[in-house]
Design a protein that fits this description.
By secondary structure, the chain is an alpha/beta fold. It has twelve helices and eleven strands. The structure holds NADP nicotinamide-adenine-dinucleotide phosphate.
């Protein structure tokens, strides 16, 4: 397999985990990060503690800015720090690279395509439970690590598959992005509003959760994605009671949340298509007022 030059912008839970797995396959991985993190990673590399992969370490480069060509740029910041982080990646240095954002949400694709017109921006999603408990250390909970990429992501998908990730390319970009949001947005919005894991939300606000699942599915359809709200509901009801969303976790810890990238994006898409989403709108408005 070809050795790829890969830059990872935002080497946290998601980016750090993929950085370790790809670097161990012989790809040249440079993590683009804030000064302290960049220095730490450059000097000490990254460690991954994973139920699926075991204890792994990898040498990676750490840099504050992209200074040379790469084949692939993985964008793995949170939405709240995306604009600031992109300052580290000048368009003329990035050139024709493949850019794969793995953020939750849908609106970052347009922003990236405007900013990097010469690059090939390929939609992607990841399903995983990963976190960065301390600098240079990544924790992966459970067995799940599944990446979906739109066409253009074939080479990266091969590299990820070889690294042990469940990676696939699928043709429909809208379906890929909205499949994730159809499940994530209802679960994130309701757990964040309640300040609890999923179990109590299902018990106490099951009707609202179902209503939001139905509304987001209607928006997805309007965006050109096939959706199956009954299947999303079944899946949501099959998950453990203790499941938390990262939005609820961020809110609980007083960190900025991805409310706009997830809930705000659903409302804006609904407005574009004239889809009525009263339950979702009320919850997003309540959270906007509360979280600022
Ligand atoms: N974690 C998951 O299990 C998971 C699953 C599916 C989807 N997602 C999505 O994936 C995205 C990333 O989530 P995450 O959990 O991996 O986030 P995270 O652990 O908080 O990692 C974000 C990384 O971005 C870095 N960063 C922040 N500001 C930066 C800047 N200005 N320049 C460069 N780097 C900067 C942080 O650096 P420091 O290390 O220096 O703080 C951190 O390493 C989100 O959209 C999330 O919703 C996450």
């Amino acid at each position: 397999m070809t050795s790829l030059r890969i830059a990872v912008l935002g080497p946290g839970g998601v980016g750090g985990m993929l950085a370790v797995l790809l670097a161990r396959q012989g790809h040249t991985v440079t993590c683009l990060a804030r000064p302290g993190t960049a220095k730490h990673l450059d000097e000490h590399g990254l460690r991954l503690s994973s139920a699926r992969f075991g204890e792994l370490a990898a040498e990676v480069g750490g840099a504050e800015r992209l200074t040379g060509p790469v084949d692939v740029l993985l964008v793995t910041t949170k939405a709240t720090s995306l604009d600031e982080a992109l300052e580290r990646v000048p368009a003329d240095v990035l050139g024709h690279a493949v850019v794969v954002p793995l953020l939750n949400g849908v609106e970052h694709l347009t922003a990236l395509r405007e900013r990097y017109p010469a690059a090939r921006v390929v939609a992607g999603t990841i399903r995983v439970f990963a976190s960065r408990p301390e600098p240079g250390v990544i924790r992966h909970d459970g067995q799940l690590v599944a990446v979906q990429l739109a066409p253009g992501g074939e080479e990266l998908a091969d590299a990820l598959t070889a690294a042990g990730v469940d990676a696939a390319v699928r043709a429909d970009e809208a379906g890929l992005l909205w499949d994730k949001l159809c499940f994530l947005a209802p679960m994130a919005l309701l757990t964040t509003r309640a300040g609890t894991p999923l179990g109590p939300v299902r018990d106490q606000h099951g009707d609202e959760l179902t209503a939001v699942i139905t509304e987001v599915a209607a928006v997805a359809e309007a965006e050109g994605a096939a959706s199956d709200p009954a299947a999303t509901r079944d899946f949501t009801w099959s998950l453990p009671d203790g499941m938390r969303s990262s939005m609820e976790r961020d809110s609980d810890e007083g960190n900025p949340t991805e409310l706009e990238a997830i809930g705000g994006a659903v409302l804006r898409a609904a407005d574009r298509h004239g889809v009525d989403v009263p339950v979702t709108r009320a919850i997003v408005e309540e959270l906007r007022a509360r979280l600022g």
